[in-house]
Fold this sequence. Notes:
The protein is of the alpha/beta class. It contains 13 helices and nine strands. Norvaline (NVA) is lined by residues 163-165, 228-229, 232-233, 268.
Amino acid sequence: MTSTHIRHFLADDDLTPAEQAEVLDLAAKLKASPYDARPYEGPRSVAMIFDKPTLRTQVSFGAGIAELGGNPMLVEGKLAGIGIRESVEDVARVLGRQVATIVWRTFAQSDLETMAQYAGVPVVNALTDEFHPCQLIADLLTVREHKGDLAGLTVTFVGDAANNMGNSWLLAGVTAGMHVRVAGPLGYWPSEEMFARANAIGEQTGGSATGFSDPGPAVQGADVVVTDTWVSMGKEAEEAARATIFAPYSLTSELLAQAKSDAIVLHCLPAYRGKEIAEEVLEGPQSVVWDEAENRRHAQKAVLAFLMEQVDTA
Ligand code: NVA
C-alpha cells in the first residue's frame, strides 16, 4: 500500500525552504508553550525503533510525543528484527495499522525509504548512515535563537563530514539560505552528488555548499562552527586510523579563534573531548551544545505536528 498524501521526513530536503521555516517557527512556539499542539490526543501511539545506540533521540522523542498528547511506544529493534525476522515491507504494513507515526533510527537510508513506501503513516528519520534531519532542525533552531535570521550566515563543519551530520548540514543549511563550508581531509567530504544537491537548493535560497581541506581558511569569518565525532556508529573498526586522519581537524580554541569573535559552537553529542573538540571549547562561552540538546525535543515536536497536520487535513 502506498499513500500519496502522506508526508515523511527522511532527508533534510523533504521540507521546502518555506516548510523548513514554518517548522522552525512552530518549534519556537512549542518551546515557549509546550502543550499547544496535540496531534496525538486520544492518545495515538508513535512507534520509536532504534537499531543503533541512542540517548538524546529516544528521550527527546519520548518526552515530546507525550507532550503532543501521544503514547511513545519503544519498539526494541533487536526483538523486532526488521529485515531479519521479517521484511521491512511487512513490518511497515503491520506498524502502520497500529500507530500514527513511525520514528526509526537505522543503518541504510534505502530501508527507511521502503518503510515510508509501505507504512501508510508518516515515517521520520531518527538517524541513518546518510542523514540526521531531526538533529538539523534542532541545530537550526539553536542558531536562530543565538544569531537571528539564518539566511546569509556562514557555518563551518570541521572533521568527518562524510557522514549523516555532514550531509544533513549541507542540505538543511543551504535550505535555510546559509553558506555551508565543510573542512576535512580529502576523501572524507560529502559526495559530489550531495554538494550538487545542496547547491541546487542554493539557487533558490542564496545559500551555498563548499569543501575545504585546510581548516583555518574554512573557519575564517564563520558565524557558526560545528563538529561531530570522528567515529560514527558503525565505524568503530576504523577508530585508530581515524584518530590520525582527523587530528589536524580538531576544534581547538586556536582554530575557533579564526571564526568571528561571537561565533557559536555546535556539537550534536556525544562529544569526545580532546579528539574532535577540545574540552575548553566544548565547555567554553561560545558553546551552545546544551541548548542544542534541549532543542531536539522542541524541533521534533514541530516536525511531528507538521507531518500530522498534513495527514489530518488530507
Ligand atoms: N555522526 C554520528 C552522529 C551521532 C548523533 C553517528 O552517526 O554516530
